Amino acid sequence: MSAFESRGQAAGVEIRFRRRDVLAFLRADEGLHDAANKYKDEVRIAQWLPASPAMQPAQAARAWPVPKIDTTAELAAWLGVSVGELEWFADLKRINGCAAKGAGPISHYRYRVLAKKDGNIRLIEAPKKRLKELQRVILNELLDKVPVHTVAHGFVKGRGIKTFAAPHVGQHVVLRMDLRDFFPSIAAARVQAFFRTAGYPEAVAGLLSGICTNAAPRRMWETLGAGLDPLAMADARIRYATPHLPQGAPTSPALANLCAWRVDCRLSGLAKAAGATYTRYADDMAFSGGAEFERSVERFAALAAAILLEEGFQVHYRKTRVMRQGVRQHLAGMVTNERLNVVRADFDTLKAILTNCVRHGAESQNREGHPAFQQHLDGRVGFVEMVNPAKGSRLRRIFERIEW
After folding, report:
1. Distance (Å, rounded) from C-alpha 160 to C-alpha 74?
2. Helix, strand or coil for residue 280?
C-alpha cells in the first residue's frame, strides 16, 4: 500500500481523489522518481486511464439508485441546458463573487441579511428562478434517492420534529446542543466529495457541486449590511465568501444531511458507548439517557464538541443545555419530561393572541409585522395540533372565529 492510499484510508472511508491531487503526489514522490530512473528501461505502461472516466461509486454507494451521468455533456442534457449554460450556472470560477454589490445579470442569487439575537448575522441566499429549477431537478432526481442517517430527522420525508424529540421522552437527563452557522459550515469541497462518493467523475461532480453551492459577493454587504455590527459584518463577509451551502436553496437541506453522515456516525457511536440516545434535526442535536449517562453528561458534551470541531462544525455553547428531570426538558418547542407536549407559556401566549384577534381584529395583534399573518397563526396552531391534538382543537376553534 502506498503512502497516498494509506492517507486516504486513515479516515476509514473510501475516497475518490482528484486527478490533480494524485499527479501532485506522484511528482513529489522521491522514491517513485528514483525507481523510474533506476528501472527506466524496464518501465512499461500497464493501462491507460480513460480520458472520460465512467461512474465509479464507492462501495457503500453502489446500491444508490442515482442517475448515471458520465460526462459534462450528459449532465447538461439531463438538466436540460447547454454545456455553456451549465458552466455559467455552476460558476466554478466564481465570477458571481466579483460582481459589484452582488447585483446585475451574472448574479444567480438574491440576498437578505438577518441580524440574530446573539449579535451574529445570517445571510439568506435565494436562488433565482432558473437556477432554482436546476437545483430542484438535482434534489428530486438525485439527492432524494440517497438514504440519510437514521438519526437525521430534519427535512426527511416521514420524519420531523416530533420524531426528533420522541426518543428523549421520560429520560433522566437530556443534553441539547446547537451548531453555529450550519449551512455555511459545509464547504463546496465537502459537497463535491459527496458527489464523488456517489460515483460521478470529477468534472461532473465539480459542476453539480457548483450548482448547489455559492460564494456571496463581498461588495454585496455594502448595501445590505448598513447599520449592522461592524465586527459581525467582517466575520460574515469572510464566512460567506467561501463557497458553501446557501440557506435558501432547495438542495441545501438534503445535502447538509448527506454531508453530515460521518459526524452522525461518530456521534451515534459515542452515544451508544455512553448508553445514550442521539437524534439530530438540522443544526439541533439531542442526547438523552438514564442515570449512568447523567453522571457523565458534562464530559460527554465536551467529547461531542471535540468530534464536531474535528468534522468542521462549531458548537453554539450559549445554547447548550443539560436538562435533568427536576427542570423542564424541552426540544424544538416541545416538553419531553413525561410525554410530548407544548410549552405551557407558548400555548397561553398563542391562545391570548387568537382571542384578541377575535375581539379586536387580527391587525391589532400583528406586532411583529408578519406579511402573511393569517398563515403565520395557522402554522402555529397546526404545530400545537400535531403535538397535542386536544389543545390544538381548542385553538383551532378560536382561529376559525377570526375575521380576516
Report:
1. 36
2. strand
Tell me the chain's radius of gyration from C-alpha atoms. 25
How does pLDDT run across 109-133, given as a tens digit for each residue? Answer: 999 988 877 667 889 999 999 999 9
Using CA of residue 163, residue 250, residue 310, residue 229, what is the dihedral sign? Answer: negative
Residue 222 in contact with residue 101, Cβ under 8 Å? yes
Q: What angle do CA 187, 160, 355 make, to 5 degrees?
A: 120
What CA–CA distance (Å, rounded) separates 392 from 384? 5
To the nearest 10 degrees (0 to 180), the angle between helices 389-399 and 344-360 is 20
Cβ(329)–Cβ(323) under 8 Å? yes
- With 0.85 as the threshold, say if the pTM is over it: no
Q: Are 344 and 387 in contact (CB under 8 A)?
A: no
Q: What's the CA gap between 25 and 238, in Å, rounded? A: 30
User: Which burial class, exposed, middle or buried, applies to 287 when counting CB atoms under 10 A from its CB (0-12, 13-18, 19+)?
Assistant: buried
| 172 or 32, which is more confident | 172
Of 263, 301, 310, nearest to 283 (Cα)? 263
What is the overall mean pLDDT for the chain?
Answer: 88
Q: What is the mean pLDDT of residues 343-355?
A: 95
Phi and psi torsions of 290, nearest 5°? -90, -155
Nearest to 121 by CA among 255, 224, 219: 224
Whether residue 216 contacts residue 97, with contact meaning beta carbons closer than 8 Å, is answered with yes
The most confident of 10-24, 43-57, 257-271, by mean pLDDT: 257-271
In which region does residue 226 sit, left (phi positive, over 0), alpha (psi from -120 to 50) or beta (all else)?
beta
